[in-house]
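Read as chain and fold; for instance:
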Amino acid sequence: MEVGRIGFQCEERRGFHLNIDLCPVRIVDAEGNDLPPGQVGEVVISNLYNRGMVLLNYRIGDYGAMSLRPCPCGRSLPVLEQLEGRSSSTLRLADGREILDHVLTHAYKDVLKEALAFQIVHSRPGDFRWRVVAALDADRNALQRGILDAARRVLGEGNVLAVEFVDRIEPGQGGKLERIVRSSQLKG
């Protein structure tokens, strides 16, 4: 979504040829260091196509690996051989169970239509606080009830749930809004 087509699937079905002239792609480790072909890491792009808003070294939230070999189709474009899926955070519940953050965020996506931005602070097992930037005309009470009701359906009872309305949510490292943060990651 950030840049349009990053690549296209090869007819040999061995991966995705990358449009590196419009969107250079790197595979990096957690510290942002480039990984060699064959090693799985986070996909980082630089959007050179959109003149209105160029994105450099933007972590798109996907994991993958570049191919070790040239593609048998004969194209010289680099090949993203493995696409391992989206990065997710594991959330630990009060009863010891773990769920992926996508399960929770999907449960209340319709409720958040009156929110401009949101973030979940997961400070310890079973403790969740939603930080929400509400639209000016939003019914904050209804928004809070909707978030908490949806969270209870997914997480079950016994967890500490809270909603905090804020004016702004600072982007994380790399300039992207992080949906799930640990309390130690918050600035200020």
Summary: The domain at 90-185 is CATH 3.30.300.30 (GMP Synthetase; Chain A, domain 3). The CA atoms of residues 15 and 156 lie 40 Å apart. Helices lie at 101-107, 140-155. The longest helix spans residues 140-155.
